[in-house]
Amino acid sequence: MKRLFLLGLVLLGGCVVQSFQPFYGDAYKADAPEVFGQWKVASIGADSNVAYKAWVFTEDYKLLTHDDKGLSGHLQTTFFKIGTQLFCDAEIVNIPEGKFNAFWMLHIRGTHTLYKADVTKDKLTFIPLSFEWFKKGLAAKEFELPHVRTTKEDDFLMTATGDQWAKFLRKYAADTNAFPEANAFVLRKPQS
User: Fold this and answer.
1) Which of 71, 72, 83, 155 has its CA 20 to 30 A from that of 141?
2) Is 192 exposed, middle or buried (0-12, 13-18, 19+ CB in 10 A)?
3) What is the DSSP letter of 182?
């Protein structure tokens, strides 16, 4: 229960790097047909005690997610490659009626979120860009990417273009501080 509470705070508190523009340019788009179908959420971070209804990728790269309460939400995903590294850009679609789930709420501003992606035949791993690491680097001017600040001290929205993100991702894709395994969402194909 503690994990769900903490996850809710992170997801609902906006503690993910969000961008008004996609994290990719059209030249970087990549097909990833191996993601199509149902996926069981195996773990979120260090917690492998998760019991979500299966998530489903359709052939137009829409992702139907479910949270711990069984509530659903649709995301539109776009896979893209920088060098040999696969990434996933996600944004909300199909605003649900009534209640909506925590994963859909992550995208509530109508912005894009970024995940480093690794796909095999039976395993799909998404690692979000670390908000804390990114926030510190932005404040220290370790990298400069266009953004706007909101009235909250820790809140900002990125306005960088896909090409600006490509330059950033080439440099930091392998950095385990930027994309910490401890934050990974691991999904597995259900066994028949």
Assistant:
1) 83
2) exposed
3) G
